[in-house]
Amino acid sequence: MSNKEIEALISLLDDPDTSIFDDVSRKIISYGGNVIPQLEFAWENSFDHLLQNRIEDIIHHLQFENIKLELVHWKNSSEKDLIDGAIIIAKYQYPDLEEEKIHYEIKQIIQDVWLELNDNLTALEKIRVLNRIIFDIHGFYGNTKNINSPKNSYINNVIERKKGNPITLGILYLAICKKLNIPMYGVDVPAHFILAYAEDGEIPEFYLNVFNKGTVFGTPDIDKFLEQLKVEPEDKHYIACSDLAVIKRLIQHLIYTYDNLGYIEKKEELEELYHLLA
């Protein structure tokens, strides 16, 4: 379809007849995300609130459909990259985020850690290096004052603001460790996401609380935490989980935060994303 034909369709979006609007809207949507620039141009050059609102709804629909496609592709990928998964989720709220900037910032942290690592360091010594570079030098920290803010769950915000929740800080930490061949994994503990150091990929030697600057702790601490929650201990509370489980956990937390804030539409859309990973 030519640009003029798309422009003609967009010009009909302000028609008061809802049946005409529905037909035009479906036609525009059928052309996919390539029409978004023209929709944005029409929005910027209009003072009609009805037209602007309708354009916003169409753009959001197109962007959401694209996110679903990206998420399914990520799920089916043989080598899932946690940061890429987190970026897809961040695009839900920030469709125009700069992916290159996120990867660049993480690359800088990786380089700083790599310069201080050597083969003679013990596991705990490597963790001390990681913690110092990530939390002290680069200044990342857990947002204890407003842990349930949705901003804490979007990786672009975490990189920019240097603060996040246990899941996003964990994703950042895991991404750095993966690039440096440090055997760190996520652990799906209820109400708190933690990391585990496991040389064999299965039995952890110790655990990390990245929300508290990488504090090291052991199995008895998990036992005590589960007891406080009145949760029956299961194997999955102590061993490594998959990258897919980490991203599902991230979406679950966003569903929880938006539900608490009363953003029902966002909650329902995120539930749709969650079910795509089931």
What does this structure look like?
With 278 residues, the protein is α+β, with helices and mostly antiparallel strands. The chain contains twelve helices and six strands. The chain has a four-stranded antiparallel sheet. The protein is elongated and about 70 Å long. The chain starts with a helix and ends with a helix.
Relevant terms:
two-stranded parallel ribbon; 7% strand; alpha+beta; 12 helices; 4-stranded antiparallel sheet; 278 residues; 2 domains
Instruction: Supply Rg.
Output: 22 Å
Determine the number of helices (DSSP H or I, runs of at least 4 residues).
Answer: 12
Give the number of domains: 2
Uncertain ranges: none
The end-to-end span amounts to 37 Å
Strand content of the residues, in percent?
A: 5-15%
Q: State the total count of DSSP E strands.
A: 6
Largest sheet: 4 strands, antiparallel
Shape: elongated
Which structural class do the helices and strands define?
alpha+beta
**H/E element sequence:** HHHHHHHEHEHEEEEHHH
The helix fraction, in percent, is 55-70%
How do the strands line up in the largest sheet?
Answer: 3-4-5-6
Q: Provide mean pLDDT, rounded.
A: 93
